[in-house]
Design goal:
The complex is a heterodimer. A seven-stranded mixed beta sheet of chain A has the order 2-3-4-1-5-6-8, with helices on both faces. Helices cover about 65% and strands about 5% of the residues of chain A. Chain B is globular. Helix content of chain B is about 15%, strand content about 30%. By secondary structure, chain B is an alpha+beta fold. Classes of the chains: A alpha/beta, B alpha+beta. At the A-B interface, α3, α9, α11, α16 and β10 of A face α1 and β4 of B.
Chain lengths: ~650, ~90
Amino acid sequence: MDGMTKTNRRKADNDNKLPVVAIVGNPNVGKSVVFTRLTGHYAAASNYPGTTVEVMRGNAEIDGRRCSVVDTPGMYSLLPVTEEEEVARAILLQERPDVVVHVVDARNLDRMLVMTLELAEMGIPLVLAVNMLDEAESAGISLELATLAERLGVPVAGVVAVTGRGMDELKRLVVSTLDSPPPAPMTIGYAPHIEKEITAIESCLAKSGESLDRRARALLILQGDDGVAGDVEVSLGCADGADAVRHSGLEERLEIATARHDRVAALLDGCVSHPEVRITLRERLSRVMTNPLTGLPILAVVLYYGLYKFVGGFGAGTVVDFLESTVFEKFVNPFLVDTVGGMIPWDILTSLFVGEYGVLTLGLRYAVAIILPIVAFFFLIFAVIEDSGYLPRLALLLDRTFKKIGLSGRGVIPMVLGFGCDTMATMVTRTLPTRRERLLSTMLLALAIPCSAQLGVILALLEDHTLGMFVWAGVVTGVFLLVGWISAKILPGEGPSFYMEVPPLRLPRLGNVLTKTYVRVRWYFLEIVPMFLIASILIWAGEITGIFGTVVSVLEGPVQWIGLPVESADVFLMGFFRRDYGAAGLYDLNKAGLLSPTQLVVACVALTLFLPCVAQLLINFKERGWKTGLAVSGLVLVMSFGVAYTLNAAFTVMEVSL
Amino acid sequence: MSKTTMETLKTAGGLSTAGPRLADAGAGERLQITKLVDVADVETLQKMILMGALPGKRVEIIQRFPAFLIGLGNSQFAIDRELAEKIVVQPLTA
């Protein structure tokens, strides 16, 4: 066996470049935090060529050595299933980093070390970072990391990336690994029939020009790997190898995985000691959350206090009122009107900045006084919910329901995030495993999930109309389920299967929550403010040229058709520029006393379902292609006016007024 | 190459002869996985592998409805009935 073959490393022409340190690991083990700790800054994320997967890269001084650090997308195995895993593997096998830091969760070494073995079998220079040591300790798990390092033949650092504990040791190990000769690939002995197949394939592999050791490649091929198959097809001249490959696939993959799991169990024997299994308070709470009898009431409480009271009541109510009527109407706007009016003598230009639809008086006011607080409060509560580990439990609870609309429990996360920002949520649908699920969720987000800005304004509008709020919520939920159910029936393809790790519940760390909220709000604000300003300019230009008036008069038809006053045509046009912008317009309209409660409910329904804002429209096109984007928009347009019409007609026929 | 990965999985235990499935077990039961059956695609197999739902491993059923919540090693996973049907189990041997 040539398991000792030296792995080809960087070629001489690369030697003057910075050494590359890659960070790999499962999703959610803290890779990004380790990256930040190593580089000391948030580095630029760029799309990996040919994909939509983002990869973070940054240069840093590690223990006095200048390095280029790359944070790879989450991967579970070197045999990729998702696009993220393919990118991570391409970085490992094609870019050949000089050191790979494998980040694992200290509580789950039995599962996570399997990939360490896989990497070691490839002859990749490794450092193992056992992260979240504090959580393992508080769970009563004790780890003998020195023994583990000795048995693995890989340097091991125990770290708590969020606090920085152990990071100096990790840096030291990275540098010492940089200075060491590349390791020989680890050899794991498999069952005799597997070994026979490996040898057969090995004997058929081309000997030159490959960065990977032959045994490592043979292992990948045996497990049905398509990525390295290309060069094998050519080189597989001999019968033995071809025979082995014909039998290759799932069976071998399972056997090899089982052997690696067994090896890990043996490695950990005596290195890890678990406390007596006992049902802790935390575990009890978790079970209360996942049991539908108690879990659904808890969901109701989370929605009521988290969304309705905190985001809707406090954020969209108290804070917005204060910013709107006190800060802007009393101080900012009069000041701006005076200043700009004094500086610019031409009325037309003045109206661009401080007119009815002015960039400053309208655009800035909506962005800062109405939308920003609502979105910030939503992202704050979302970060708390996310960090507590509640979302996977919610996914478990709702999996059956989501199966009915063609999604799985996994689809719950983009949907919940959609209540914050549909545009961001549409980007997150990337994490769904099938194209079908991505399409369904994109459509449902565009149609029936109101974003926090909309939701906040709508909840504030309907605050005094409890019945109206129920009608609005009922209609929108009904549309969500019905459209999802019908689409799932119509769309070809198989329904998704569901599995998800359910991590222990944890108390969110204030610092983490604030950082997450800050990063998201900043993203939102950088994306939204230009959009608001551009929308204001377009509306201003539209007004001057009369185009705005024409479009509004075109919209007046359908608006009256669904029983709303003519003035609300403005709101729908603005709603296209930003859905929340429209919602805010509705707020103004209601304050002017132009809407009866019934009209208010119809308007809220129509606007919730109405075309996504410009940003979401663009993301739909970008993520799903223009055909799908267009189809989704068409459906949404028809549905919003159709449902509003039906609702209004139902009110009229039944002579109901709310 | 890729076609070969699509063949139905037969484990070392032979063809998918029936045995009690995880989906049939009750909440609170602790069991041993004996094999996987009807795993016809690589995605499903990878899910099993990364959960550590492999022959020889112990599994605890924490909850059955509305989805299965199972304990494997130190971790818990939510899985649907379809996946639970593919895991063949036996009572823990002392």
